[in-house]
């Protein structure tokens, strides 16, 4: 069975994990109401998506 010859240093471990953090979602303005929303998602404020109303909002 393959076993590492030496312990991996904290510095090397940190370098490997440098890109493992969570990234914030990209938000875009809704073209109809201007509210911030993730792309390719129905607007929670007005229910608009791809040029038409998908969800009726009160």
UniProtKB/TrEMBL annotation:
This is Large ribosomal subunit protein bL32. The lineage of its organism: Bacteria, Pseudomonadati, Planctomycetota, Planctomycetia, Pirellulales. It comes from the Bacteria. Belongs to the bacterial ribosomal protein bL32 family. Pfam families: Ribosomal_L32p. It comes from Botrimarina mediterranea. GO terms for biological process: translation. Residues 1-18 have a biased composition (Basic residues). The keyword Ribonucleoprotein applies.
């Amino acid at each position: 069975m393959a076993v590492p010859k030496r312990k991996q240093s904290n510095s090397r471990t940190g370098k490997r994990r440098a890109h493992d953090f969570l990234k914030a979602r990209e938000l875009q303005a809704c073209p109809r109401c201007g509210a911030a929303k993730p792309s390719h998602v129905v607007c929670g404020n007005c229910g608009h998506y791809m040029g038409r109303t998908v969800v009726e909002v009160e």
